Amino acid sequence: MTRERHCLPLVRAEIDTYSQPVVFMHQDCHVCRAEGFRALTRVRIACGGRSVIASLNVVTGAGWLGPEAAALSDAAWAALRPRLGDMGQFSHPELPEAASLIRAKVYGERLHQAQFATIIKDALAHRLSDLDLAAFVTACAGEHLSTCETIALTRAMQEAGRSLEWGEGPVPDKHCVGGLPGNRTTPIVVAIVAAAGLVIPKTSSRAITSPSGTADTMEVMAPVALDTAAMRKVVEAQGGCIVWGGALGLSPADDILIRIERPLDFDSDGQLVASILSKKAAAGSDRVVIDIPVGPTAKVRSENAAEALSARLRATARAIGLDLAIHVSDGSQPVGCGIGPALEAIDVLKVLRRTPDAPGDLRERALVLAGLLLEMSGETAGVERARVLLDSGAAEHRFMAICAAQGGFAEPAEAPYRIPVEAPRDGVITAIDNRLIARVAKLAGAPQQARAGVLLMARPGTLVQRGQPLFEIWAETPGELAYARDFASAQKEIFRIEVPK
């Protein structure tokens, strides 16, 4: 029986710690003293037949929380669902089984599927701290996951969530590995493929390290946080959808690992493959096109790196029963004109509406990817068929119908604050740094501020004169505009300009 000295009334801290449960306790709290709790200690909290394991943050001053109560973060409160003033029972949790497996991986041991499944299970149950998860992510980074381990991790991640089924017939999907600002082909591809009469239930992610993810851009135009039942209704009515995968619970472990990978800001082929393919399989797709942009400032920087990633993707897809096609594309410069959710949505709509100023590179990329999916699903001359569906207006009509089914279409809005960044000298633009231009867009507020970002006004190969605008920064506040402008002004290699010989 739990002793009274191990109990405290629970209050809501009203602090968002994302999906990580956190408990706040005062350093003079009798429970902390009795149990020897210190900052970052893992604490088991039980209340009303439910329990959660949370990380402890210690309050040292005489401010908002005294020693007579414990405060729960939003995630911990949602897990326990206490009534205000309910008593929580505090104790040390048992050491999770995954801890020894993570330690083994850190020291270079190979893990099999059951061991990865244990790590995923403990992560989903919040038995692992962010430090544990960071150690796991780091131990799997670089080339530390073999192809066999990649397959095992992919299966473990897929099986930890739900999987959708769509009946007989092909279920195509596409994915880009990222690293190329403005490459927002997905809404166009989905519209074309659905207009061709195929089923394409597209789940997309929000931005991790980029100025916009597909879900961020789509949300500018229509709701994306649909549950499974709502998603199914959209697909049954229109043949396709573009929804945020985080609301569906299809590969929930991926969301946890992404949360850890974001601040670490490094890439791992094995984890990338497991992330992509576990979600595709869980979404019910059976044939997938993967776009791999290659360029000196893209995520994948060389043909050799693309070949290695492609080999791992193919082996893993084959092992889990997916038909996979790889499309290696030019990643030397941004795609389209806009970088940021609303700006990329404007580009998408221009392509679908066939306006004279529609970005040609975005249009052609989308046609190639849609053509590949059509051919994988039994069509012949896929690119030509995709072009007909786009040029006839059928893709635009289907896209608008999908938006209406998801909750209603909205035109993208423009940012209230803008400033141009001008060429410092005469010359020819020879390159645009993908990473630096994306950084400018993020400093302007993207993707959190949907209207923020960068509008490109010149491209490589263009002859420019000193003072000519190269790009325009869009922001929703004067402060963010100034911050992004100052960064852009200090960077001399965002646009490489050379004097022609």
UniProtKB/TrEMBL annotation:
Keyword Secreted appears in the UniProt entry: no
GO BP terms in the entry: pyrimidine nucleobase metabolic process; pyrimidine nucleoside metabolic process
A cellular component annotation (GO) from this entry: cytosol
InterPro entries: Glycosyl_Trfase_fam3 (IPR000312), Glycosyl_Trfase_fam3_N_dom (IPR017459), Glycosyl_Trfase_fam3_N_dom_sf (IPR036320), Nuc_phospho_transferase (IPR035902), PYNP-like_C_sf (IPR036566), PYNP_C (IPR013102), Pyrmidine_PPase_CS (IPR017872), Thym_Pase_Put (IPR028579)
Keyword Ribonucleoprotein annotated: no
Pfam families listed in its UniProt record: Glycos_trans_3N (PF02885), Glycos_transf_3 (PF00591)
Alphabetic keyword roster: Glycosyltransferase, Transferase
Its EC number(s): 2.4.2.4
Superkingdom: Bacteria
Record GO terms (molecular function): 1,4-alpha-oligoglucan phosphorylase activity; thymidine phosphorylase activity
Catalytic activity of the protein: thymidine + phosphate = 2-deoxy-alpha-D-ribose 1-phosphate + thymine
Residue ranges crossing the lipid bilayer per the database entry: none
Residue span(s) of domain Pyrimidine nucleoside phosphorylase C-terminal: 428-495
Family under the similarity heading: Belongs to the thymidine/pyrimidine-nucleoside phosphorylase family. Type 2 subfamily.
Protein name: Putative thymidine phosphorylase
Gene: pdp
